[in-house]
Specification:
Layout (H helix, E strand, L loop, with lengths): L1 H20 L5 E9 L6 H20 L3 E3 L2 E11 L4 H13 L5 E4 L3 H13 L4 E3 L14 E3 L4 H15 L4 E7 L3 H16 L3 E8 L7 H9 L4 E4 L6 H10 L7 E4 L6 H7 L7 E4 L8 H14 L5 H20 L6 H13 L4 E3 L2 E5 L5 E2 L2 E7 L4 E8 L6
Parallel strand pairs: 1-3, 1-4, 4-5, 5-6, 7-8, 7-9, 9-10, 10-11
Antiparallel strand pairs: 2-3, 11-15, 12-13, 13-14, 15-16
């Protein structure tokens, strides 16, 4: 019996030595990414995934994210929301309850971000949507933030730009009533245009998936409108613009758009038909500073394509999380406690310098930041900076 006891003690001692000598690396933080990898806008999902991976690799290559004197490696858990609201909500639920992520990045399109944000808020997991500009993504949801500006500001900028740039008083809108982002953009534009003294002479709608806009564009042409606002995504804009050109709409009406236009695929799909049109966006590559140019160069070297604003905003969302974690001070290992700490760390951020500009969150989780207006030159394959509107120059 004594021999067995001695043998057991020896085994335990050796086991302790082995454990003490085992290599120990930084602990892991799980970050969930909810992206539109399939469906109608896969370029959005790809840009989000690429930029999140690039940011995580940078942080890990630097030894990890230091929080309270301890280093943590970032591990991404990526979910495809298929560009469907119900799938975005399901992906958020899985990331939070099964994968146990510390923070949720995404979704991007507002129709997906709104249901995903409801899940994140209910389950009390901090969320940053890189690209969703719709107010309902963050409204009354203290756990939800965004890296982009908000639609009411963007549509207001477009209304003011359309009136001043083209000396116009009669405006028109053509938008998808099945998309949250497009729907609200249409109404925000109308409200601001009328508040500024203009008249909306045509307010035309369609439903997601429609391919023929002849009836709506004919009404708009006959309405006497001088400016047409089209708050749609890059995959729909070419169809609308080509049909507008064919019907002679653009001979007298200036078409302008929002940030959903920005994608490398826009010029591939639209070609010269889109030349000379304007849209608002989150950054302008040709006036970008050193930090942004370094990001653009590295992204292009890594993925072989120029990054769009979704990529820039996702990259910023990852580093907003890193800043929030450092504001948090330390992690306890209790997921609920640590998620609350990250949420509070996000709310405490001031004047964060990202690749898409300087930003500070409001109490609602919306970012105060600039809007850029760019002009399309598909012959050269670029969107050229035209004007920047600062947050406080438009009310």
């Amino acid at each position: 019996m004594l021999r067995k006891l001695i043998l057991l003690m020896v085994v335990l001692a050796l086991s302790g030595i082995a454990t003490a000598c085992a290599p120990t690396g930084p602990a892991e933080i799980l970050v969930g990414v909810n992206a539109e990898l399939t469906g109608a806008i896969p370029m959005v999902g790809a840009a989000c995934k690429n930029a999140a991976e690039m940011a995580a690799e940078e942080i890990n290559a630097a030894g990890g994210l230091e929080i309270g004197g301890k280093k943590y490696k970032i591990k991404l858990v990526i979910a495809d929301n298929e560009n469907k609201p119900e799938s975005a909500a399901a992906a958020a639920t899985k990331l939070i309850t099964q994968d146990k992520v510390l923070i949720h990045i995404g979704a991007n399109a507002s129709k997906n971000a709104i249901p995903a944000s409801s899940v994140c808020n209910e389950l009390q997991c901090p969320m940053i949507s890189p690209w969703s500009t719709n107010p309902n993504t963050t409204l009354y949801k203290p756990w939800v933030f965004r890296a982009c500006f908000i639609d009411s500001f963007q549509a207001g900028v477009n209304a003011q730009f359309g009136m001043e740039e083209f000396n116009a008083t009669k405006g028109a809108v053509l938008f998808d009533i099945g998309s949250d982002a497009c729907y609200y953009q249409g109404f925000f534009f109308k409200n601001t245009w009328e508040k500024l003294g203009g008249q909306i002479v045509a307010f035309e709608t369609f439903t997601t998936g429609d391919k023929d806009f002849t009836a709506q564009l004919t009404k708009i042409k006959e309405s006497g409108a001088e400016v047409l606002y089209v708050p749609q995504y890059y995959d729909e804009v070419p169809l609308i613009v080509k049909q507008a050109n064919r019907l002679g709409v653009t001979e007298k009406i200036h078409i302008i758009g929002h940030d959903g236009w920005e994608s490398p695929d826009l010029c591939k799909l639209c070609g010269a038909d889109c030349n000379g049109l304007y849209f608002t966006t989150h950054w302008a590559v040709d006036i970008a500073g050193e930090k942004t140019q370094a990001f653009i160069k590295k992204y292009k070297e890594k993925y072989g394509v120029d990054p769009d604003s979704v990529a820039g905003l996702t990259y910023d969302a990852m580093y907003l999380f890193a800043k929030a974690a450092q504001n948090c001070g330390k992690l306890t290992g209790n997921l609920a406690t640590d998620r609350k700490c990250i949420r509070d760390g996000l709310a405490a951020i001031k004047d964060f310098e990202g690749v898409t500009g300087t930003m500070t969150p409001t109490e609602q989780g919306d970012m105060i930041k600039s809007v850029h207006i760019v002009k399309i030159d598909c012959d050269a394959g670029v969107f050229r900076w035209y004007k920047t509107v600062q947050p406080r120059t438009f009310e």
